[in-house]
Amino acid sequence: MLGNSRPSNTRKKESSLHRSLKFRYSGSGATETPVGDYVCDGLGDDGEYIEVQTGSFGPLKEKVKFLTKSGKVRIIHPIISQKSIELYDSGGSLLRKRKSPAKGSAWDVFKVLLYAPELPLLKNLVIELAIVDVTERRTDDGRGSWRRRGVSITDRVISGWRESIVLSKPKDYHQFIPFRKSERFSVRDLAEKAGIDVGLARKALNVLNKMGLVERTGKQGRAYQYRKI
C-alpha cells in the first residue's frame, strides 16, 4: 500500500479506510507529496509529513528514517475496535452481514512494531493510533483466498471513530508496562495483568526490550523475568 517508496502505476488499489485517514490528517488536501525518492501520503497544515500505514511498520523503516531527517513525521496506524463483515454476490447484492468477534486494542501496535522496534526512538517521529470501527466488504467471486473459500475482500470503510492515542516519545510506551520498577514479571504476568493473550504479550516485551524500556533479569523456572527500566 502506501508504504511503497516510489511512484508506481501498479500500486495496489487504495482502500476507503486508507483514503479516509489520508485526507483526515492531511492539511488543505495536500496528498501524495514527493519527498526526494519517496512519496509521502500527505502533509499536515504545519508541514508535518503524514504516513498512513495499515500493516507492519517494517517496510517503512528506511522511508521514515529519511523523512525524519527532513522534518516531523506522523505515522497514522488504524486499529479496528469493531469489525462488521458484509458479503456480496458477484452482482453486488448483499447476501448477509455479521459482526466479527475479534476486537482490536492499543496493544496491537506491538504487532506492527515487531520488525521495526527502533522507529519509536527516532526524533521527529510521532505514532498515532486511530481506534476505529470498520465495515469490511467482501465479494463471493471465487478469486479470493482459499482460507475464505474464494471470497475476496474488496474494501474496508470506516463506520465509526472512537479515539486516537498519540505516542510521541519513548516514555509514552511506559503505559504498556503496568508494573513498578522494583517488580519482576514474566510474559504470562504481563498477559494476565493487561488482559491480552500470551503471544501478544511476548511481542510487546520483545519490542519494549529492544527500545530499552524493559530488560531481562534472569529466569524463574523456565520463564524469563523482566523489569521496567
Keywords for this entry:
20% helix, seven-stranded mixed beta sheet, alpha+beta, 229 residues, two-stranded antiparallel sheet
Tell me about this structure.
With 229 residues, the protein is an alpha+beta fold. It has 2 domains: 1-168, no CATH class; 175-229, Winged helix-like DNA-binding domain superfamily/Winged helix DNA-binding domain (Arc Repressor Mutant, subunit A), CATH 1.10.10. The chain contains 5 helices and 9 strands, in the order H-E-E-E-H-E-E-H-E-E-H-H-E-E. The strands form 2 sheets. Strands 1, 2, 3, 4, 5, 6 and 7 form a 7-stranded mixed sheet that branches. Strand 8 and strand 9 form a beta hairpin. Helix 4 packs across helix 5. The longest helix is centred in the last third of the chain and has 13 residues, at 198-210. It is globular and about 60 Å long. The two termini are 36 Å apart.
Radius of gyration, taken over Cα atoms and rounded to an integer in Å: 20 Å
Helix content: 10-25%
Structural class: alpha+beta
Total domains: 2
| Gap between N and C termini | 36 Å
Please, what is the average pLDDT?
92
Q: What would the principal axes of the Cα set say about the shape? A: globular
Strand content: 35-45%
